[in-house]
Amino acid sequence: MKAKFKFLAAIAICAMISSCATVSNPVTATTNPFGSKCGVAESTLYLGGLWSSKGEENGIDKAAKSAGITKISHVDSYTKNYCLGLVIKQITKVYGE
Description:
It is a single chain. By secondary structure, this protein is of the alpha+beta class. It has one domain. Helix content is 26%, strand content 44%. The mean pLDDT is 83.
């Protein structure tokens, strides 16, 4: 019985560690030409959003400022889930000049 429980516990732990999903969403696009710069802003949420790491922001403005972009061509947003959604990483990428 103990061996069966340990086996099932090991399977559950492996599933939690290996479960990872990435969702990509195009946010917006403008008529500006595709630029050579790419700005990135990231934030990490723990426990399904109940606890955030350091109050980080992952907005378009922060991503554009990080690369010195003044004319935005398009914006992409990514969400990565780790450990069955207990850790969520949100990434915003801004492209432009």
